[in-house]
Amino acid sequence: MAELNFDALKLSIAALEQGLEEHAQYPQLLTVRDGVIQRFEVAVDISQKLIRRVLQEVYQMEPARIAKNAMREAAGMALIADAERWIGHVNARNETSHIYDASKANAIFERIPGFLPDSTRPKTASSVWMCAWTAKRRG
């Protein structure tokens, strides 16, 4: 069992925040908007992988159980505050693969600022996951 590393998550969240700041400066540039959407994709992917890994390695959940209900299981273990919001983030991330028109891109972009507090609030912060990881390793 390798140590959990949250560096990629921290970097992806910082990149997403920077992208949103750049978009605020240059809202007319579609390339900036599209870059923010791509950074959102990466941040959600990394978050999902960490959540799944914690559920499997720390809480000993079966992969099949995690695959079906990862966000609900994570909320049940207090790793995230709101499963439905996270399911919405994951669904929006999945839609990014199918962006063919501006209205879909704009709808996804509008959701992104709400992802940041969910990804950084105390219940989802790496400190909680690290506490769970450390407790499991000691036990």
UniProtKB/TrEMBL annotation:
Domain of life the protein comes from: Bacteria
Q: Give GO MF terms, alphabetically.
A: transferase activity
Gene3D superfamilies according to UniProt:
Nucleotidyltransferases domain 2
Q: Which UniProt keywords apply?
A: Transferase
- Pfam families, alphabetized: NTase_sub_bind
The record, for InterPro entries, names: HepT
Q: Which NCBIfam families match?
A: HI0074 (TIGR01987)
Stated name of the protein:
Nucleotidyltransferase substrate binding protein, HI0074 family
State the organism of origin: Verminephrobacter eiseniae (strain EF01-2)
